């Protein structure tokens, strides 16, 4: 019998009509790495919650079937008991901190205290795990003072010290920058070698392909298929289930390089092994350059800022923004959000100035700038307060002086754009997080500002959501709206933006077209960034140019 | 986000004294003057509080609490001194306004009680870490849930204040003025408070899950990272303090009976 046995699991959340899980049967062996993929609403997190017993014990609802973890019935054995052998880490690192400890070290020991682990053993495990997760240097810091990425590593360490036999990671890297998520993935990989069973729910398909032994594909509460990464990610119906195959599988399929079993390689390494020496690249003579469009909308001149005296977080930033969609990329703490908030007037610069169409915005409040500069915050729950989606979206337009009729018209147009027009009369809190995020986006789009700033729009979005955001950015750019977005998703940066600004330590390291910025290796390394997946594969196969899209890859590549 | 706890470890002996000894001190310093009934006892208690705070290098930080209480005390003096029902004997007058001895004496007593309570509580909150108080309560049989509330409230409140700032920014970004005229501020109330409540509910639910998967609901015996390093005088001090309460109570009983 496998360590985790799931038989015909069916579950419905309270006050809902749809089954979140519809007859899942699955066995998970000890020591394996299972990746779970699928679009938002597929039931991935619900399945994770069922394994640890939160479904049905915490969430209640209608439950059928059977889940056994190490011989314990997950529906009846208390969660705190199952938690001895199963750990759970979820997306938001902030809410995983106990809030009762003011040192990282004590926070990591909190769970061990609850389980009565002797203090010597506690110290040994805590030291070892802090080292493994690369957070030993923060042991005496207040966990609430850490960045999101650091906090998430504390959250993972807090579970790992409990030495669970299974760890469920529910999109643990969705709020981390590329380097931060790579660190987490590496640490998790080390754990597989130690014999721990890992179940990872992820939207980052390339990562899951790299580390999983098996992948479970879910959609609409059903287990569609389970198999090796190559098998699952080569399925022709993958996109019907809301998953875009990883770059190596897409490219090798397009170039007809199949593995002996007829599947396509899901990882960069396997694709390189398969195609190396068998693919050549034509040199592109007309390289993409960041051509400025005519009108300058926004300008920052020698902008500096510090939250506390003597600790400057931005050092003399001078940038001119025209109508090109612009992505600001860089590690957590590079100063991206601070720069965006300054441009929106939410913060006041210590020195330097910001000009909107040549006019200094120093005397304006953020509210008075609302008609000109829109800002979409990361967390939609920080703004939603109306009982109807349409009313929520109309709030901004009404504030900037539109008539009721006009505001409603703009709100409906914006909801059409984010594919939520049918939800106009629903309560925003009856929608899922990724949909609420779209409501927040629509509520700013409806204000028809000439500048729109997006702070991490892809968090909580699946591939469908990302494709939709990419389309919205292009549509807004066509309407002469300057879209500036802070992003960690390099594939979206490559596909949707004409200009990229790479930042680190409060300075601009590079500014240009995506091709220009991604060709600067020293910049990527200093800013802690990675190449987009298609470009990384092309580079490993010997391409000299930066090939950001599948189309440019396939145009340049030829079989030798 | 920083904790809003007033505790600072300044390395003095007072920080090493067990929180229970400080609780016993609070109990003694409030009950003994109450039982003795003499204003001199209150004066002695206040002097003792101040001496302890000075030797623990914490008087400066207690000052803010005392200054805050002064407005209340001045109000009590005015009301009692001028309007108390027992006022008979004029003490002094300021122009046409006459203050009476009886009311002033009552106000003095109430003021002394307030200052004494504030100073003695400040000894605990300025020199004991909330986490230590919570841990010690738990070790001595109190519910882990109670000790969690004591320890977490100091970081959860600033976290909520941080959320409030973000919400204010998000609504200002959508053109809502949050400053200026009172009517404008009133209008801003619902758009600001609703997300605070919903976000807090979402966060609380997630945190409850996070605590559960870290064994918070576990019924077994808990362990602790480090045993409390007892201050040499903890036991002796606690005995003396509890004895002083007993002695005062006995004296009061005796004086009633005689």
Give your account of this protein's structure.
The complex is a heterodimer of chains A (560) and B (258). With 560 residues, chain A is α/β, with parallel strands linked by helices. Chain A is built from 21 helices and 22 strands. In chain A, the strands form 5 sheets. A 6-stranded mixed beta sheet of chain A has the order 6-7-8-3-9-10, sandwiched between helices. In chain A, strand 1 and strand 2 form a beta hairpin. In chain A, helix 4 crosses helix 5 and helix 14 packs across helix 15. Chain A starts with a strand and ends with a strand. The mean pLDDT of chain A is 92. Chain B starts with 12 loop residues before the first helix and ends with a helix. Chain B is flat and about 65 Å long. Chain B is mainly alpha-helical and 258 residues long. In chain B, strands 1-2 form a two-stranded antiparallel ribbon. Chain B is built from 9 helices and 2 strands, in the order ααααββααααα. In chain B, helix 3 packs parallel to helix 5 and helix 4 packs antiparallel against helix 5. Chain B has 2 domains: 144 residues, no CATH class; 72 residues. Classes of the chains: A alpha/beta (560), B mainly alpha (258). The interface between A and B is large, with 70 and 59 residues.
- Give the mean pLDDT of chain B: 89
Uncertain residue segments of chain B: none
According to CATH, the homologous superfamily of the largest domain in chain A is: P-loop containing nucleotide triphosphate hydrolases
At CATH level 3, the topology of the largest domain in chain A is Rossmann fold
State the order of secondary-structure elements of chain B, H for helix, E for strand.
HHHHEEHHHHH
Work out the strand percent of chain A.
15-25%
CATH architecture of the largest domain in chain A: 3-Layer(aba) Sandwich
Structural class of chain A: alpha/beta
Q: Number of folding domains of chain B? A: 2
Greatest interface (CB-CB under 8 A), with counts per chain: A-B, 70 and 59 residues
* Major sheet attributes of chain B: 2 strands, antiparallel
Low-confidence segments of chain A, given as residue ranges, are: none
Count of distinct structural domains of chain A:
3
- Amino-to-carboxy terminus distance of chain B: 60 Å
Top CATH class of the largest domain in chain A: Alpha Beta
- The order of strands across the largest sheet of chain B is 1-2
Strand content of chain B: under 5%
What is the distance, rounded to the nearest whole angstrom, between the alpha carbons of the first and last residues of chain A? 49 Å
